Structure formats: C-alpha cells, structure tokens
C-alpha cells in the first residue's frame, strides 16, 4: 500500500475507495422488527421516501447512490436491516448494540479486524482482450480451492453480491457451460462493473496470521488506454491505492510475436504495452504527488497471459524466436506450500529477457520504475480456445504465482 517504511493500517473501503474514519461509521441492526418500527415512526415525506420498499424494508440512499442510481428514483436499494447512522453503535430503535459495521459512504460491510489489518487491494490491469476476465475467473477458483489448502488459508466472499456476480458472470459460463467469457463492458456503460468482487483471505497457520481483503476489479481494457481516461472514469484512486498491481501482457498482441507465431484465431496486434504501463505509472505519480524520479512503492507483477501458446514446438525459424523453448524455467514446478524464491526468480529473469527482446528495452525500464517487481508467465485456460466452446475445458497454469509473490512481498514488508 504505502512504501514499506511508512505503512500504517488505514482502512480504505475496498468497495468505494474512501478512507474510512472508524469513529464515524454506520451500523446495521439485525433485530428483525426495527425496520418496521423505524418506518412507522417517520412522518410525511420522510416516510414516503424511506418506505418505498415493502413494509419490512427501508430505502438505503447511500448504497443506491454508490451504485449510480437515483435514491429518489423508481428502483432504490432497500434493506430489511435497519441502518443506524450514529457512531455509538447502539440501535436508535431497539437501543441494543449492533455489530454489523458499514462504510458510511457506500454502506458495504466493514469486516471484523479491519482497523488493525487494514485492507489490501490488489488490482489486475491490462489492455483489451489480454485475458483479464478469464484470469480473474480462474484465479478466484484456484485461490479458493487449491491455493487455500496449500497455504493454510480460507477465502470467503465478503458480500452476497460478490458470490452472485462471480457465479453469474464468471463461474457458471466458464466452468459449468464450458464457454468463453464475453468482453467486459466499459466502466461507463455498466453499473455492475463498478462493484468489485471482494473476498477475505485469511491465513490461519504460519508465523503471522493475517487477513487480506482482496478486491478483484475487472476493468475493461479500453478504459486504460490513456491517463486522461483513467482519471476521467475515477479509476485512479483504485489504482493509486492498490497494495499490489498485476499488469497483464498478451504475447499474441505484441506486434513482433504476432507477426511470427502460428496460432488459430490470433487477435490483431494490440496497443503498445510500454505506453500503457507508463500511463499507469504516471497516474500513480500524479495521484501521490511524486516526482518523476521517485520509484513507485506499489509492488508490480507483470504477467504474460495465454502462455500456453508459447509452449509448443516451433514450426519454423521465425516462430522459434518468439516461443519459450523446452528449457524455460516455467516448466519447472514450484515447490508446494511455501514461497519458492529460486523458481520465481528464474522465471522472472527469463520472462523479463523475453519481453525485453519482443517488446522493448523501454518496457522493462518502465517496469523498473516500480521498486518491487517480478515477471510471471500464466495461462488461465491452459490451451488455445478455438471458437466459443472450450473443448478442452479449463486447465490453468501458474495463475496463482503472482499472488504467492504479492503475499510474500507484503509479509516481508511488515517484518
Ligand atoms: N490461449 C489462450 N487464450 C486465452 C486465455 N485466456 C483468454 N484467452 C483468449 O483471449 C480472449 C480475451 O480474453 P478476456 O479474458 O475476455 O480478455 P479481457 O482482457 O477481459 O478483455 P476486455 O474485457 O475486452 O478488456 C478470450 O476470448 C480467449 O480467446 C488463455 O489462458 N489461453
Ligand atoms: Mg474482460
Ligand atoms: Zn434495532
Ligand atoms: Zn465504501
């Protein structure tokens, strides 16, 4: 989050990115009759305003505004749990202490322990079609299942909405129906995209128990093409306050690789990744009022997506130049259950050299503007899909690696 030396626990709401003053939060009462009693006690226009749900639900104007809707309009967000807007934590209706804590701005929950632990928000960025949505979909599944077992952690969705979005937008389509995901709508066009999926990841054993709040924010590639656009869409606080950034690069969209590789249905050559990463660095510097010489303290994982396409035997000499080759360290399995530094450093060095060669020296120089950085090669699907049906299913490769590094880096920073 901050540079290693000035880290202090602040609670940044991972839903709305506001700093939360823990003395001024809101609460929700779980006593089932409080909403009804609250509505009965109101008069005239207030009663009309708050009572537009059914009789046992009150309107939640803060959350309605957060979701980009009009609280006085036809479909406000309503809740059956009475909202308490005083920081004492005692319900103004039944007088009993309430335990459900809410961010006062967006009315999303504040987890237990938030003030000590803070929240670590990791963002996944990359140009259009790089594979962000597939990566996020597969990553969440891997973290929840294999990673959690391997590293003694549990991962739970922070809200019902997160579970709903994950199931409806990602899991069902990819894992149950075996179909590719659709392109992500722009932040501008879709309210739903404004709400990140939030999970709590708790490391239970190990020397230092720690809870991370992970916010997976699936941006649309076109929203990142310029720093003006990033700023205009208010994505900047999200990026600038991240505890870690995963920047995805699609090998197939790198012009040098695109021209030489033989792959079914390859995309057109894409935006210049050096410019895009420089835009991100610039956004952070402006936001944090840093000079252009200062190195950025947010850890950066650069991950090559779709690396399955680089793992084949070359068809000709031209192609050989852009493939990984049989001795590439990415083929060596990492040791399970711990941070395998040697393995990661080897993969990082080789992937950096690869990107320096096929993208540019300028790109790897831009990566160095981030004090802590590491390179990865991942694949969400494990093979190249032809058409919209995933005939070979989903068999991910190394998708969790960047997060193993980010968590390790974070722990080191706090030692
Ligand atoms: N070979 C291979 N192709 C992949 C993989 N993941 C994604 N793709 C391909 O890349 C395309 C784009 O992936 P998305 O995850 O939708 O990309 P995105 O970055 O979310 O794109 P936008 O939402 O439009 O910004 C997919 O439709 C697949 O054809 C992978 O692991 N391997
Ligand atoms: Mg997408
Ligand atoms: Zn109450
Ligand atoms: Zn909030």
- Gap between N and C termini: 15 Å
Instruction: Enumerate the distinct ligands.
Output: guanosine-5'-triphosphate, magnesium ion, zinc ion
Helix and strand pattern: EHHEHEEEHEHEHEEHHEHHEHHHEH
* Main sheet: strand order: 6-10-11-12
The 3D shape can be described as elongated
What's the tally of helices?
14
At a glance:
With 415 residues, the chain is α/β, with parallel strands linked by helices. The chain has helices spanning 34-41, 44-50, 61-66, 114-117, 132-151, 160-176, 227-232, 236-240, 255-260, 273-287, 317-320, 341-358, 361-367, 401-414; strands at 26-28, 58-59, 78-79, 83-84, 100-102, 122-125, 153-157, 197-203, 210-216, 244-249, 300-304, 373-377.
Would you kindly provide a written description of the structure presented here, covering whatever features stand out?
The chain is of the alpha/beta class. The chain folds into two domains: 21-111, no CATH class; 120-414, P-loop containing nucleotide triphosphate hydrolases (Rossmann fold, 3-Layer(aba) Sandwich), CATH 3.40.50.300. 33% of the residues lie in helices and 12% in strands. The chain is built from 14 helices and twelve strands. It has helices spanning 34-41, 44-50, 61-66, 114-117, 132-151, 160-176, 227-232, 236-240, 255-260, 273-287, 317-320, 341-358, 361-367, 401-414; strands at 26-28, 58-59, 78-79, 83-84, 100-102, 122-125, 153-157, 197-203, 210-216, 244-249, 300-304, 373-377. Strands 6-10-11-12 form a four-stranded parallel β-sheet. A three-stranded antiparallel β-sheet has the order 4-1-5, with no helix packed on it. A hairpin with a 6-residue loop joins strand 8 (197-203) and strand 9. Helix 5 crosses helix 6 (160-176) and helix 10 (273-287) runs parallel beside helix 13 (361-367). It starts with 25 loop residues before the first strand and ends with a helix. Mean pLDDT is 87; it is low at 1-8. Residues 132-133, 183-184, 218 line the site of magnesium ion (MG).
């Amino acid at each position: 989050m901050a540079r290693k030396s000035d880290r202090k626990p602040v609670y940044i709401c991972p839903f709305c990115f506001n700093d939360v003053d823990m003395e001024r939060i809101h609460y929700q009462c779980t006593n089932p009759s409080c909403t009804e009693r609250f509505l009965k006690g109101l008069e005239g226009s207030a009663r009309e305003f708050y009572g537009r749900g059914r009789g046992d639900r009150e309107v939640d104007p803060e959350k309605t505004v957060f979701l980009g809707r009009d609280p006085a309009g036809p479909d406000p967000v309503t809740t059956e749990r009475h909202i308490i807007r005083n920081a004492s934590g005692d319900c103004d209706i039944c007088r009993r202490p309430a335990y459900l804590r809410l961010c006062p701005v967006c009315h999303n929950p504040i987890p237990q322990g938030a003030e000590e632990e803070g929240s670590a928000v990791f963002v996944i960025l990359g140009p259009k079609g790089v594979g962000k949505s597939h990566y996020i979909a597969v990553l969440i599944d891997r973290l929840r299942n294999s990673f959690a077992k391997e590293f003694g952690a549990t991962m739970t969705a922070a809200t019902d909405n997160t579970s709903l979005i994950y199931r409806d937008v990602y899991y069902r389509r990819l894992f149950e129906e075996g179909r590719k995901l659709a392109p992500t709508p722009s932040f501008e066009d879709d309210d739903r995209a404004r709400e990140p999926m939030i999970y709590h990841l708790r490391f239970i054993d190990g020397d230092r128990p720690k809870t991370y709040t992970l916010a997976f924010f699936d941006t649309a590639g076109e929203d990142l093409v310029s720093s003006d656009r990033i700023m205009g869409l208010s994505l900047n606080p999200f990026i600038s306050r991240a505890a870690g950034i995963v920047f995805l690069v699609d090998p197939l969209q790198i012009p040098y690789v695109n021209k030489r590789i033989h792959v079914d249905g390859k995309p057109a050559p894409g935006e210049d990744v050096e410019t895009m990463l420089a835009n991100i660095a610039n956004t952070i510097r402006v936001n944090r009022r840093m000079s252009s010489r200062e190195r950025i303290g947010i850890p950066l994982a650069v991950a090559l997506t779709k690396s399955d396409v680089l793992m084949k035997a070359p068809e000709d000499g031209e192609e050989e130049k852009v493939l990984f080759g049989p001795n590439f360290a990415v083929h060596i399995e990492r040791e399970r259950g711990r941070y395998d530094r040697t393995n990661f450093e080897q993969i990082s060095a080789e992937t950096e050299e690869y990107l320096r060669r096929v993208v540019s020296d300028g790109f790897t120089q831009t990566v160095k503007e981030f004090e802590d950085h590491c390179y990865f090669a991942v694949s969400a699907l494990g093979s190249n899909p032809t058409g919209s049906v995933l005939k070979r299913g989903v068999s991910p490769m190394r998708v969790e690696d960047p997060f193993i590094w980010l968590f390790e880096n974070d722990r080191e920073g706090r030692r």
